[in-house]
Amino acid sequence: MSDTQSYEPRIVAFLCKWCTSAGADLAGVSRIQYPANVTPIQVMCTGGVSPMYVLSALRKGADGVLVSGCHPGDCHYIEGNYLARRKLHLVKELLGFVGVEPDRFRMSWVSAAEGAKFAQVVRDFVEDLRPLGPQEKVKADRS
Amino acid sequence: MIKIQDIRDAARDMLAKGEVRAVIGWQRGSRGMAAEPVVINAPEQADGLVWDPTCYHNLSLYLVNDKKAQAHAKQKPTLPIAIIAKGCDARSCVVLMQENYFRRDDIYIIGVSCEGTGVIDERKLAVALGGVKPTSAAFDGDDYVVTLPDGSEKRLPAREVMADRCLECREPFPKENNIALGEDKTGRALEAPFAALARFEQQSEAERWNYWQRQFDRCIRCFACRSVCPMCFCDECVVDSIEMKVAPTTSAEEKASRVRWIERSNTLADNFGYHMTRAMHLAGRCIDCGECERVCPVNIPLRLLNNKMEREAREQFGYEPGASIGGPSLVSSFRDDDPGTWIR
Ligand code: SF4
Ligand code: SF4
Ligand code: SF4
């Protein structure tokens, strides 16, 4: 990144196919403005988001990782998001424990009808990531 | 106090009566005072078994190895295999059974209680003895008695040189057992559980990262910690990306684009990936036998990571690894009131 460019956080977002992906689409078709810092990756269910996805994204240089899926009770696979909640809580705790800012990892519940909420989640995340600066701690050194 | 003769008799009897096909235990080693794991399958070999403060190995690893060897030889054993198990070893047997790696009647647990002591931490002992290497060690009440090379004996309060995990151990008695020897001293924890963890957590985020950065940087990725852990029984480990099946028809593109979750090189980023993944894969399964930390050639404090996950499981999810054979594992279950306020 050149000095003249200001820092723009790069977010990798794992979005569940049934709720948040549709919510993100809705934000798009509703022409709701939100920062273009997110690289969305569609997954079938947040329950299938392995901790490795999060770690790997950080290793590959993501400044923040977002996992977003259906609200509790609304999971297409009945309980995938509950399993994700437990597993990803542990990931977040572990990140904080070793001293990687836990704020670089975020999870949210966004339904297919919540286009506005999706935009807000992204806006908030970008703003919260800005003061943290680029994530260099666990980014693989390619030099 | 457990008499070694009782352990030998139990093992000899079982083998003589043909109740088990082998007994996994400890024998005198070839490296100074340390006992070494042994698998015996004839009654007369029972006399070589030992029980002393150097029996730190978690023998359930050898159950896993036995199972793999049986599978490799395409054998289906008809008799169970017996294992001499301390409290922590018995807990790891429970996790293995909970995960359906074994059925309960595949194994016969000869429990040995740690009775108020635990096992020696060789690193602490080396400091206490100024580097002098003892030739043997024995339990004596709340003390260890070590024999020095010149033949003299030295008495050391066990809690000064015992392994950290033993200080915090709440269950030195093997709860899951077929027979158990020794006194049940459950609840004898010499230090508050997670005491070391709590001390570590007093530090700021920057200090903690400083610490772990240094630790992860030092890891040489020898994978001893993985090899020694009874819970790391997967046939294929995610860090071994070279194990991708390559057939004559596999294209160069397929080879190049295979998923490499974690590279094998020991860079900080990949060591971080390895250790975080390891901690996650052991969350709710690690029973704090301390073997990973003991075998690490560069003294990476792996127990801190494991303990963090263990305490989280206990406090946030009411989950205790190794407590019962029935029931789901930590990450394959949930409760409606799992913490969720952190989710936006
Ligand atoms: S952790 Fe507990 S059961 Fe295991 S060796 Fe130490 S005292 Fe014994
Ligand atoms: S933590 Fe220690 S035992 Fe494990 S791979 Fe690294 S150097 Fe080896
Ligand atoms: S992670 Fe370490 S302490 Fe936990 S079960 Fe495995 S070897 Fe034992």
UniProtKB/TrEMBL annotation, chain A:
F420-non-reducing hydrogenase iron-sulfur subunit D domain ranges (all copies): 11-133
Keyword Oxidoreductase (UniProt): yes
Domain of life: Bacteria
Keyword Iron in record: yes
Species this protein is from: Candidatus Nitricoxidivorans perseverans
GO molecular function, one term: iron-sulfur cluster binding
Pfam (any one): FlpD
Name of the protein in its database record: Hydrogenase iron-sulfur subunit
InterPro entries tied to this protein: MvhD/FlpD
Keyword terms: Iron, Iron-sulfur, Metal-binding, Oxidoreductase
Automatic annotation (TrEMBL), chain B:
Transmembrane segments: none
Protein name: 4Fe-4S dicluster domain-containing protein
Keywords: Iron, Iron-sulfur, Metal-binding
SUPFAM superfamilies cross-referenced by the UniProt entry: alpha-helical ferredoxin
Keyword Plastid: no
Alphabetized GO MF terms: iron-sulfur cluster binding; metal ion binding
InterPro entries: 4Fe4S_Fe-S-bd, 4Fe4S_Fe_S_CS, Helical_ferredxn
Top-rank taxon: Bacteria
Annotated 4Fe-4S ferredoxin-type domain residues: 210-230, 277-307
